[in-house]
Amino acid sequence: MIWNPERECADRQQMHELQSSQLTAMIQRLYNNVPFYRNKLKEAGVEPGDIRSVDQLKQLPFTTKTDLRDNYPFGLFTVPQEDVVRIHASSGTTGKPTVVGYTQHDIELWAEVVARGLTMAGIHSNDTIQIAYGYGAFTGGLGLHYGAEKVGATVIPISTGNTKKQLQFMIDFRATILACTPSYAAYLGESILKEGISPADIRLRAGVLGAEPWTNEMRKEIEKLLNIKAYDIYGLSEVIGPGVSMECSCQCGNHVFEDHFIPEIIDPETLEVLPDGELGELVFTTVSKEAMPLLRYRTHDLSRLHREKCDCGRTLVRMDKCLGRTDDMLIIRGVNVFPSQVESVLMEITETSPHYQLIIRRENNLDTLEILVEIDEKNWSDSIRELEGIRQRIDHNIKSTLGISAKVRLVEPNSMERSEGKSTRVIDYRKC
Ligand SMILES: [Zn+2]
Question: Read out DSSP for 128-178?
Fold first, then answer.
């Protein structure tokens, strides 16, 4: 089933016209209501009437996270406070949090895109969805919540944490869908095994997983642990929250809801727009949002765009699963390394669990990479010779994938800290 066939299967010409008219109206609104954008557009030599087509997007200025912080808290809102019905804010690990506002229309739009996404994963009114994303200022919990209610599913708004209660609710309330971060899904899967819960008591059939980058190898691991089909949902609070894009059953990239969020891929160095199929930084323009529309917002997420027709029948552009962020890229001994590359290697090794950590140091002016990998419970009892064999295999595969060698250290099962939200995969002591 397709939630909104008119939009999700629109022909390219129709989509182009819709995006163009929405962009024209958006530029006018930004110019009239937000001094920050008025100045930016003037600097770029753009008058509102100049923009008539989405093809002109590349002439327009970018918006960055720093712009959001500089205009903290409400400087980028285009509507008066009386029209704002909700505020979300990012955790703000460095500096001020980034604030996002929603009008009633924006909340409905959010529910609509999440409903489209959940429908892609085959979720409907007979499902019970356990939402183990954080509720609160973070957009994960409430974002999924309204879309799940819109498709008529039964919602368990359990939020993050309290794994014992998660498992009890999952069993007693017969949850069929799990929504959380991929690392927490893996942890829940392991907990089911550890508690000796019978697979017959777990009725999950699909996972709606996102909020952190994860590889296809990690997907296989989670699918095996929980006996589900795992779908990727992508979003970021600045754009709306979860529901910017979602995987259909073909799992060949996430369909972007481009009637609301127009994606571009740029070269993060030159800022030039890259052609379809090339890897670069994702940029979004939110043409239909009322309270805080963003013009060419730089996400720092790395992806590619594809426009070939998808077997599911949707014509919406697809983005590759995000495998990292421009600021996740580590430069180790002059080589570009993404944590996702390491994850891909580790997930291919069946004797390891999906828990690992990268530790980077600088010793005698030389960068060192240490990789801690947790061994699967079943294999920990193996002889030292067998463990050494596993270690050497990881060592070899890391070297051939990354092009640099790393010190691989195997650690005991369940010895690494588990995360209920986003996990800490990288510790870079060079920055401390
Ligand atoms: Zn599709």
Answer: EEEE-SPPSSSHHHHHHHHHHHHTTPEEE---S--HHHHHHHHHHTT--EE
State yes or no: pLDDT of 420 exceeds 90: no
Residue 306: φ, ψ to 5°: -135, 135
**How many Å apart are CA 76 and CA 19, to the nearest integer?**
22
CA distance 130 to 204: 10
For residues 286 and 103, is the Cβ–Cβ distance under 8 A? no
* DSSP label of 214: -
CA of 250 to the centre of ligand 1 (A): 6
Structure token pair of residue 201: 């008591």
What's the pLDDT at 268?
86
Residue 160 in this model has a pLDDT that exceeds 80: yes
Cβ atoms 340, 348 nearer than 8 A? no
C-alpha 307 – ligand 1 centre gap (Å): 11
Contact at 8 Å (CB) between 282 and 324?
Answer: no
Alpha-carbon span 275 to 284, nearest angstrom: 15
How many Å lie between the centroid of ligand 1 and the Cα of residue 306? 11
Do you know the residue count of the chain? 432
pLDDT digits (tens, 9 = 90+) for 39-63: 999 999 999 999 999 999 999 999 9
Distance between Cα 73 and ligand 1 center (Å) = 37
What 8-state DSSP symbol labels residue 46? Answer: -
Cα 300 to ligand 1 centre (Å): 25
Task: Give me the pLDDT at residue 394, please.
Answer: 95
Q: Are 193 and 424 in contact (CB under 8 A)?
A: no
Contact predicate 64/295, CB 8 Å:
no
Residue range 76-104: mean pLDDT, rounded: 90
Both structure tokens of 212: 């952190």
Residue 95 has pLDDT above 80, yes or no: no
CA distance 25 to 55: 15
Residue 260 CA to ligand 1 center (angstroms) comes to 18
CB of 246 closer than 8 Å to CB of 231 = yes
pTM for the predicted model, two decimal places? 0.84
Cα–ligand 1 centroid distance for 254 (angstroms)? 8
Spatial distance between the Cα atoms of 201 and 198, rounded to a whole number of angstroms: 6
Percent above pLDDT 70 for the chain: 98
The per-residue pLDDT for range 340-359, each reduced to its tens digit, is 889 889 988 888 888 899 99
pLDDT at 313: 97
Residue 93's pLDDT is what?
58
> What spacing in Å lies between the alpha carbon of 319 and ligand 1's midpoint?
11
